[in-house]
Amino acid sequence: GVLAQESPEHNIHGDSYIMSNYVKFVEMAGALVVPIRVGESVKYYQDIFSKINGIIYPGGAVDLVTSEYAKSARILHKLSLEANDRGDYFPILGICLGFQLLTVLTLKENVMVNCSEEDIARSLDFTWNYRQGKLLQNLPAHLEEAMRSSPVTYNNHQYCFAVKSYDSLKKLNSFYRVLSTNVGRNGTHYVSTMEAYKYPIFGVQWHPEKNIFQWNVHSHIDHSEEAVEVTQYLANFFIAQARQNKHRFADLKTASNALINNVSPSFSGAPSFASNYFFNFTSNSIH
């Protein structure tokens, strides 16, 4: 499942959307995507949760507390924690805004600070114990070296989760292990990769999906062989986690009707070369 979010105001295509990069990211690792609409009932989220094998909270630009994206994620997050507590393995991956959302869902408040990290590719500063978690435990040596020394992780966020906030907030530092950090343009030391101690919940402040699938000619995205491998590693890891979940649709027809393949993406053309899947969350039908 990939969670949608509200479109920019007055968008003619639909009230909510999912960037195609996230769909391709999932499909590249051998999985299919079910779009999760926002602004729906608790029953809708309970039903879709019972049929999918994991969730991606994607990047974007909506409010982390008041948006329909955040409200929908709160319901799904509660369902995921309850499922994992009863032995129903259910993974979540938060990317950029989705990474920040993970902290808000745990802390119940927004503690993001400005770090001015729009459109910049960076290497990662790994923590001393980064291999103790699942996410980077089996990272190949050549990719570790690339991620340490080359700008293979693309960042495009104004706000971030400061390391000093992590250190001072027990709700966060007892729930998440920090795997890497970075320093923003304005000097803010922030968390860039983390995962939960107890749950299969993973967060990256950077964009693994863009190295392969985003070709905006004005963006500083690394498309090198090593950067491509970073994308492939993250996608393969997360889908391997999702394969451990046994949720399923009742039949092939129901599954087929739920897939994002039923929606035609809208292509923006140059200079961004981006495409999005648009929906109308005020209606039960996908547009």
Automatic annotation (TrEMBL):
Domain of life: Eukaryota
Secreted in keyword set: yes
GO CC, one annotated term: vacuole
Active site feature: 96, 207
InterPro entries in alphabetical order: Class_I_gatase-like, Pept_C26_g-glut_hydrolase, Peptidase_C26
Pfam families: Peptidase_C26
Catalytic activity: (6S)-5,6,7,8-tetrahydrofolyl-(gamma-L-Glu)(n) + (n-1) H2O = (6S)-5,6,7,8-tetrahydrofolate + (n-1) L-glutamate
Annotated EC: 3.4.19.9
Subcellular compartments: Secreted, Extracellular space
GO molecular function, one term: gamma-glutamyl-peptidase activity
Keywords recorded for this protein, A-Z: Hydrolase, Secreted, Signal
GO biological process: tetrahydrofolylpolyglutamate metabolic process
Family label: Belongs to the peptidase C26 family.
Protein name: folate gamma-glutamyl hydrolase
Organism: Capitella teleta
Phylogenetic classification of the source organism: Eukaryota, Metazoa, Spiralia, Lophotrochozoa, Annelida
